[in-house]
Amino acid sequence: MDLDEFNRLPADEARSLLRPCLDVDRWIEAVVAARPFADLDSALAAAHNDAAPLTTDEIDAAMAHHPRIGEKAKGDGAEAEHSSREQAGLGTLDDDVQARLAAGNAAYEERFDRVFLIRAAGRTPTEILAELERRMTNTEAEENTEVGKQLIEIAALRLEGILA
């Protein structure tokens, strides 16, 4: 689909297309209402600006669709397809990296009571592990802010993939 097609979609179809990007009604409605977009950059700017900042409730709802980093997404819906594509750049993880990610994920979940979320696209496993370790020192409020930013980055990347 290209931007012109997206701009012309009926609102309900546009909402359905956006939901797997970021399952936050406020964001979906804002992006749909901002159409038509003149270019991809303005669509991506809306994706960033219309979401920020996400509330704790919005983050919690959106997180329900994200698998652990380094694990395959469950199901065969659009969210799982997006996640698989985003994590594909990690390649096949060697046993040491896989073990460190599993241990880091478990420690993160114990500390913050949710899966560790990071925009995986464009990052190496080493970068992801370093971010996981750094973020373990965050306060709950700091981490909530970081998770919100990561969700927005992921949403913009997914939208860009749809419109490319």
UniProtKB/TrEMBL annotation:
<dbReference type="InterPro" id="IPR018020">
    <property type="entry name" value="OHCU_decarboxylase"/>
</dbReference>
<dbReference type="InterPro" id="IPR017595">
    <property type="entry name" value="OHCU_decarboxylase-2"/>
</dbReference>
<feature type="region of interest" description="Disordered">
    <location>
        <begin position="72"/>
        <end position="92"/>
    </location>
</feature>
<protein>
    <recommendedName>
        <fullName>2-oxo-4-hydroxy-4-carboxy-5-ureidoimidazoline decarboxylase</fullName>
        <ecNumber>4.1.1.97</ecNumber>
    </recommendedName>
</protein>
<dbReference type="GO" id="GO:0006144">
    <property type="term" value="P:purine nucleobase metabolic process"/>
</dbReference>
<feature type="compositionally biased region" description="Basic and acidic residues">
    <location>
        <begin position="72"/>
        <end position="85"/>
    </location>
</feature>
<dbReference type="GO" id="GO:0019628">
    <property type="term" value="P:urate catabolic process"/>
</dbReference>
<comment type="pathway">
    <text>Purine metabolism; urate degradation; (S)-allantoin from urate: step 3/3.</text>
</comment>
<keyword id="KW-0659">Purine metabolism</keyword>
<feature type="domain" description="Oxo-4-hydroxy-4-carboxy-5-ureidoimidazoline decarboxylase">
    <location>
        <begin position="7"/>
        <end position="160"/>
    </location>
</feature>
<dbReference type="GO" id="GO:0051997">
    <property type="term" value="F:2-oxo-4-hydroxy-4-carboxy-5-ureidoimidazoline decarboxylase activity"/>
</dbReference>
<dbReference type="InterPro" id="IPR036778">
    <property type="entry name" value="OHCU_decarboxylase_sf"/>
</dbReference>
<dbReference type="Pfam" id="PF09349">
    <property type="entry name" value="OHCU_decarbox"/>
</dbReference>
<keyword id="KW-0456">Lyase</keyword>
<keyword id="KW-0210">Decarboxylase</keyword>
